[in-house]
Amino acid sequence: MVQRQAQGAWETGAGVGRLRARPGAGQPPPLESPPTGSRPLGLERVRDGLLHVPPGYDAALPAPLVVMLHGAGGDAPNVLGALAGLADRHGLLLLLPDSRGPTWDVIAGGWGPDVAFLDRALSAVFEEYAVDPARLAVAGFSDGASYALSLGLANGDLFTHVVAFSPGFAAPPSRHGAPRVFVSHGTADRVLPIDRCSRRLVPRLEADGYDVTYREFPGGHAIPPAVAAAAVGWLGGRAVEGDA
Predict the structure, then answer these.
(1) Beta strand pairing status for 37-40 and 49-53?
(2) What does the alpha-carbon distance between residue 237 and residue 232 come to, in Å, rounded to a whole number?
(3) With contact defined as beta carbons under 8 Å apart, do 121 and 6 qualify?
(4) pTM to 2 decimals?
(5) Residues 6 or more apart in contact with residue 167 via CB below 8 angstroms
(6) pLDDT tens digits, 209-233
């Protein structure tokens, strides 16, 4: 993937958690036969990320896009395995950025570098691939889930769906739009205990007027395959035998 914008062009808004990239906004038409499979983003030499394109991608049919954010200390390959098979079966584009540091910027101290990097990555994807603006999701696990909720609620005019697998909190700097929200959490989670995390967070989101789908499961700090499949189905993917 070729970097087409100077990094400084994306700094405006990053300090307040706002993304500027939009599908079809000033970009050339998507490539007719872009590469499929998994490949590096090619935006940075280290702490870069991956783009995963399903084998059946068709530029004539805009595809849903899921931005998937890893947990603390992780990177894109850590979370690719949880969704790659489902993405292929349901025709989802997966954008998996690496955080600039050990975890996401707002958790480490403030909005900025990760927002700017994600803006660059989204713009590059929008230039090469046809993305369905009605199914554009940000998702994450653990710290990535907290960041997905925070970033998603702040950019609900871009993201239509937010998926949080075992989140700790939501701290949007502002709120825009009304994205639908999916939250899952293990009842035996010892890393981010459910009673002080999702069981407090979900009622607050509902009280604020968000459409929330909440799924608890018996287990720890993880993304069980059945929960991942439920999230993909909630995003609007076609039903697949054996995913229930």
Answers:
(1) antiparallel
(2) 6
(3) no
(4) 0.90
(5) 140, 142, 145, 146, 148, 149, 183, 185, 192, 197, 198, 201
(6) 999 999 999 999 999 999 999 999 9
